[in-house]
Predict the structure of DUF1955 domain-containing protein.
Amino acid sequence: MTIVKSEVIRKLMDAKKFLLDGYIDEGVKIVLQIVNSSPKSDYNWFICNIIESIDCKYMFQILDKIGSYFDLDKCQNLKSVVQCGIENNTLNDHVSKALDLLVSQGKRDKLEEISKEILNKDQVSPALLIALANALRKVGDERDATNLLLEACKKGDKEACNSVNAITVRSVM
């Protein structure tokens, strides 16, 4: 059993090197071989390791190809996925899933860190701001959520403006 496990680890480390160096197809090929021949408990740690170390320009391409084979909810570094979404100015399924997992894990502190970082960026889409605001609301941080909605409203998003107006009306009553 130990021989098999060390072989899996060696192959995954080879895959990681390919993925980090931008040889996505080669790395994915190795990962898929392992996924098809090993129990999930032997390799699930790998996706968390990749999320932690991969360059944002490759993150979503890799998650598109192999993310469905892993349990991302086991990862403690989902903030990296959201940060890559912010860096790439992209709200996609991976960013949405990472936000949902951060909420379900009760990671209010991580979400607040992300909200501070996102407000320091000039070119952030209103959709990202709204998604993060909704996540913050779910963990009980109405103040930071409102700040993000205000920012999205300033960028011309009507949904955000309506949400901010609804909050303002509720707080006045």
In short: The two ends are 66 Å apart (CA to CA). Residues 2-20 form the longest helix (19 residues).
